[in-house]
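Teaching assistant here, posting this on the class forum so everyone can see the example we discussed in section. The complex has two components, and the goal was to see what a joint structure prediction looks like when all of them are supplied at once.
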Amino acid sequence: MKALLNGVEVQDAAHAVAVDDRGLAYGDGLFETALIRDGAVRFLDAHLERLRHGCDRLDIEFPHAALLEDIHTMCSSAQSAVLKIIVTRGTGGRGYRGDVAMAANRLLALHALPAHESHNGLVVRWCDLRLSRNATLAGLKHLNRLEQVLAQREWREQDIDEGLMLDTEGELVGATAGNVFIVRHGTLLTPDLRFCGVRGVMREQVLRVAAERQLPCNEEPLWPHDLEEASEVFVTNAIRGIRPVVALEDRRWRAGPIAEQLSVMLKL
Amino acid sequence: MKALLNGVEVQDAAHAVAVDDRGLAYGDGLFETALIRDGAVRFLDAHLERLRHGCDRLDIEFPHAALLEDIHTMCSSAQSAVLKIIVTRGTGGRGYRGDVAMAANRLLALHALPAHESHNGLVVRWCDLRLSRNATLAGLKHLNRLEQVLAQREWREQDIDEGLMLDTEGELVGATAGNVFIVRHGTLLTPDLRFCGVRGVMREQVLRVAAERQLPCNEEPLWPHDLEEASEVFVTNAIRGIRPVVALEDRRWRAGPIAEQLSVMLKL
């Protein structure tokens, strides 16, 4: 695995990160998972903008110039790959608080693209685990991801592709590793994520092109019954793109025209 | 800093942990912070029992025998210190889920004891950040600690020692780095932590000796007004012991007899 830690190539990926990195100690940081295609990061500006916003919210200095250099280095060694970027508040510091100003740590790693799935439509289930509500952290792709880990460990069936998650009040939030859109009476709808969930980069692209092409579209609170009444359902993710949902328990959908149209518009 | 990673002494604490350790990637693990005194871990059984319980809840194999060896090694090199133990689900694995059975990673590190505070009573404030509710993770000392990090970063005043935290519904949970007890009409009360918070090792010791000595004691939902009406308030923590709260905004308390009595019983 090729990796860069604070701009220096990691010689031994098994022994790289500081014992007291705050990302390990407390999940005190953020990450991005981006697609490298033809030697460039797709939607790079959107990934960087989300990371900058997350750093602002967590009061971590955004290491912009250094990250651009790191990303340039990584892209020069892969035509097609998954690029994972982690930014943590830094190393050490006193207890939970850390020091007032710490130097952020940057860790970038290249991974192989996921194996091509045999079918295009997703078979999904409801996860039992409910996402906790916290408006302060809502939307951020921070390193506190135990809820997603436990949700994905709920099932082992090979024929289930994804899990859909509700929050503790029963509102629809998204998939374990993606955002959810539905089509209702011709309008594109997605949860507004005011209390939890991650504001995905692909979600943002969908909202952007929908606005540009004047597709009716709204971010709002959604509930399980909205999904079951939808004419079309799809999941978005920066690596996997836009994936139609074809089955949830007894409910079936066909891969729909809007997901297809958006994939074409976004050149996925 | 002396540290052990999976039983091997860390030669370079700045480059020790795997790039894709799941503790760093997702906070997918647990930790303990224990006091070494006279070359032995205080309340070792309680720390190990909590860690075992956390591993069970997160479906991580509890590396019991190996941890005992690690702890023995660490205690042989320090008479008085803070011992931090991190157990993560392991290295790598596919996405959030990880592989079905992974070998857990163990990271132990010794830190200096915190400087002796100049006074015994704590001056506390209310934190603005509210803790999210998630019964699945409640009580565990897992590595998803961004809420505590952000809460401690809310204040910089040197004369504030701790912050008290409420959950999103306004219930009292505890301090940013400790549990809270109050005395009301002679009864010892502490939040029941059914939705959030950490079940501290010192909290458990207090409940244990209170039961043994037949002090009236209860775990139940508490709210800010309960605290303000209390005759005595104290914060418990495995390193700092039992610390009376003497001020919260305009409210003042004296260091009370029950905190004192419990400290003596527990030989703190």
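For the discussion questions: Chain B has a mean pLDDT of 96. The CA atoms of residues 166 and 172 of chain B lie 4 Å apart. Think about how each of these relates to the inputs above.
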